[in-house]
């Protein structure tokens, strides 16, 4: 039987562990908080992140990384992206030699501007053939409630992608597709969080659907430009990990990044929003690293720039809107 170790007991890590367990894999969750782990192990519930959701009785939980990793075929990483490097360095000695490392994270590392798969390869010392990425329009609460959803499993080794696809395929409510374009799948997941912040700010200001549609469409153009510079397949951005994830994250009230942006748009300060936010909104930190990555490759990303301005540099939402709408006119062409 395939064994999966899932690191991270947040809503998406717990939900993906549910999928793996219910698909017939021997699955164990690792968490750092003993009380949360005990609740999963004994009461089969995650009261902090998925209250009211019954977890499979076959799903185990532990605070011991060595126990979780013992004999694991898949090591699934669902921790906040900016803490991945430090955490993985502490766990790597216990990772089985042939295990596939799977990223559920959607961010770009501050300072290095590395994607999560790049951080995994560097810290764990594994080749790219042993690193996979799962990304798509995957709002955890909906999936935990057994609402239908689809995702993308990306790996340069198509056989590895197919193995992971089989491990998390759970008819009729979770359908994974494979894609060898790791770069495109990761960028779609990371940058859409930044665009969702922008949409949320606009919604919080009282703006309507025209503005949201404009930001999503031009946001997709920013994702595509950056992806082209990094060698991604442009078709990826028209799929689940691109447009699909962007639409879900920008439109759903379940989206952490959109909700974070809404609160900023309503006039709350960054400190106030952080204090009121229980879970990580990845775009808050990754907007800076995404912008740094764009500048490194000389890619224009005006929405990302104003998001950084509003979130980190004291720019008001109204100033951000004025900057975007006052830019010089240009033709609309794919990738521009």
From TrEMBL:
Domain Glycerol-3-phosphate dehydrogenase NAD-dependent C-terminal: 181-320
Compartments where found: Cytoplasm
Binding site residues for NAD(+): 8-13, 140, 256
Positions that bind sn-glycerol 3-phosphate: 106, 136, 192, 245, 255-257
Main localisation: cytoplasm
GO molecular function: glycerol-3-phosphate dehydrogenase [NAD(P)+] activity; NAD binding
Catalysed reactions, as listed in the record: sn-glycerol 3-phosphate + NADP(+) = dihydroxyacetone phosphate + NADPH + H(+); sn-glycerol 3-phosphate + NAD(+) = dihydroxyacetone phosphate + NADH + H(+)
Record EC number: 1.1.1.94
Signal peptide: none
Pathway assigned in UniProt: Membrane lipid metabolism; glycerophospholipid metabolism
Domain of life: Bacteria
InterPro entries from the UniProt entry: 6-PGluconate_DH-like_C_sf, 6PGD_dom2, G3P_DH_NAD-dep, G3P_DH_NAD-dep_C, G3P_DH_NAD-dep_N, NAD(P)-bd_dom_sf
List of residues binding NADPH: 11-12, 32-33, 49, 106, 140, 256, 282
Enzyme class, UniProt record, top EC level: oxidoreductase
Binding positions for substrate per the UniProt entry: 106, 256-257
Coiled-coil regions, chain positions: none
NCBIfam families: PRK00094.1-2 (NF000940), PRK00094.1-4 (NF000942)
Protein function: Catalyzes the reduction of the glycolytic intermediate dihydroxyacetone phosphate (DHAP) to sn-glycerol 3-phosphate (G3P), the key precursor for phospholipid synthesis.
Family note: Belongs to the NAD-dependent glycerol-3-phosphate dehydrogenase family.
Protein name: Glycerol-3-phosphate dehydrogenase [NAD(P)+]
Organism from which the protein derives: Nonomuraea cavernae
Encoding gene, per UniProt annotation: gpsA
